[in-house]
Write a structure and sequence with these properties.
Elements (H helix, E strand, L loop, with lengths): L1 H10 L11 H11 L1 H14 L1 H5 L6 E13 L2 E13 L4 H93 L4 H59 L1 H11 L23 H11 L1 H23 L4 E8 L1 E2 L1 E3 L2 E3 L4 E8 L5 H71 L3 H36 L5
Helix pairs in contact: 1-5, 2-5, 3-5, 5-6, 5-7, 5-9, 5-11, 8-10, 9-10, 10-11
Length: 474
């Protein structure tokens, strides 16, 4: 009984060991090292480089012609004809082009922001899944230790039952010898022999009955104790197999996490020792407002709509003439006529140019194209808002479900522990209900695992809402 009490006390004093690493630190590493995120950022930088391109004037045109034989003119012999021309778009065209390129670059920046939010959510989700796995392993190991202690407890009861059976057999033999001795000593007289024979016979019958009952009870108790040992060993084998599977599941999760951080797949990852319940601090409609205002995909579509508005203005301006200004330079050399030098002064002639946009169909088509693209963006934005609203509603439902499950499994865990303590006390006293002890222990393990899952689901759902709103909600 003393050993049994010690084992029960050990069962009630389980300690946990955890790891610690900041999730924020992992997010920072991912933001700095992830190659896909770097690619999106370089796309944004490349889009920015388009702004100075479209905001610059067209390159000036220089044309030069040289005469193989100088052309004789009144002013002298013309050696060459050099022209330099600079074209100028219509007023406001360059500004509109820069505005359109800036909006497109802003749209590309929002694509980068969306990629960053998705990356951060993947890091958080994988981190939470690793935490769930580590907690599952820890709880399973604890329950495996408890089952092994149950096994030792059942073995102690089985051995105790075996010792009790041996003592009963010895007592039965002693009682039988004492009865036969009584009958022999009482045979000295006839009267007392009769009474001695009667007394001896009745003593033998009584001792045989008692020994038979004691032997049957001890055999029954021994069989029951051995079956308890076998039952708990079956549960141990099942739990050991589950534990091996959980440990094997570490490898792909760690590899996925390190891949997101652009590290070696086998690099060690440390996980925080505990996650507490989390709640949504903002009102639900405030979260939806934050999503519709801050979501990068909506901002990207807004930037595209503004860019197409600039494209419509550009299409109208392209239908206006382009102005050109330049200079024509003609070098002359003196020529001799009647023995006297004539001319020889170089000529400089200012020039202007003008394009005549008379083919209006292409300019009308450009404007119509921009209008249709703008309409498509507006429709796409409306659809995106509907999808985000649906995901917001689904996430809130999942969060409510996780909150309810967390509360339920915490209460169920406490009740299962109380029930298990009562059953263990009963089993330590009279050895009954061991199968019920194993069933409640399995139920307690199930509740513990479900409680961890519900808490992790809370954090994952909050991470989903933060991904949609592109901001911290707690």
């Amino acid at each position: 009984m003393k050993k049994i009490a010690i084992i029960i006390l050990l069962l009630l004093g389980v300690q946990t060991i955890g790891f610690s690493q900041s999730l924020e630190e992992s997010l920072e590493i991912a933001g700095e090292n992830n190659p896909e995120l770097k690619a999106y950022f370089n796309d944004y930088l490349a889009a920015l480089e388009k702004v100075p391109q479209v905001g610059a004037l067209p390159d000036p045109e220089l044309s030069m012609g040289f005469f193989i034989r100088p052309m004789e003119r009144f002013m002298g012999n013309q050696q060459a004809d050099i022209q330099l021309m600079q074209m100028f778009p219509w007023f406001g065209m360059l500004k509109t082009q820069k505005d359109e390129a800036s909006k497109m670059a802003l749209a590309q920046y929002e694509v980068f922001q969306d990629a960053k939010n998705r990356l951060f959510f993947q890091v958080k989700n994988t981190w939470y899944e690793m935490y769930r796995l580590e907690e599952d392993i820890r709880i399973t190991e604890e329950n495996l230790d408890i089952l092994k202690q149950y096994e030792r407890l059942a073995l102690i009861r089985f051995q105790s039952a075996g010792v009790g059976g041996s003592s009963s057999s010895s007592g039965m033999q002693g009682t039988s010898n004492m009865s036969s001795g009584s009958s022999t000593s009482s045979s000295s007289s006839m009267g007392s022999m009769g009474s001695g024979m009667t007394s001896g016979t009745s003593g033998k019958t009584s001792s045989k009955g008692n020994s038979s009952m004691s032997s049957s009870a001890s055999m029954g108790e021994g069989k029951s104790g051995m079956s308890d040992v076998l039952r708990v060993r079956i549960e141990i084998k099942e739990l050991e197999n589950t534990l091996a599977l959980l440990r094997d599941s570490r490898v792909p999760l760690v590899a996925e996490f390190n891949q997101l951080l652009n590290r070696n797949t086998d690099e060690r990852v440390s996980i925080a020792d505990s996650l507490t319940d989390t709640v949504l601090t903002l009102e639900r409609l405030a979260v939806l407002d934050s999503i519709t205002q801050n979501n990068p995909m909506l901002k990207m579509l807004d930037a595209e709509e503004e860019a197409y508005e600039a494209q419509k203005k550009m299409a109208r301006l392209e239908g206006r003439p382009m102005l050109g200004a330049g200079v024509n330079y003609m070098p002359f050399s003196p020529r001799t006529e009647n023995g006297m030098p004539m001319g020889g002064n170089d000529m400089v002639m200012p020039m202007v140019g003008l394009t005549i946009p008379i083919y209006r169909k292409k300019y009308n088509a450009l404007q119509k194209e921009a209008e249709l693209k703008q309409l498509a963006v507006q429709q796409r934005r409306e659809n995106t808002v509907n999808q985000l609203t649906t995901r917001w509603s689904t996430a809130l439902r999942d969060l409510d479900d996780a909150n309810r499950r967390t509360k339920l499994y915490r209460e169920q865990t406490d009740l299962a522990r109380q029930t298990l303590n009562l059953l263990m006390t009963s089993y330590a006293t009279d050895g009954r209900d061991f199968e019920e002890v194993l069933r409640i222990q399995q139920q307690l393990l199930d509740y513990q695992l479900r409680l961890i899952t519900s808490i992790v689901d809370q954090h994952i759902t909050i991470a989903i809402l933060e991904n949609l709103a592109a901001t911290e909600l707690n």
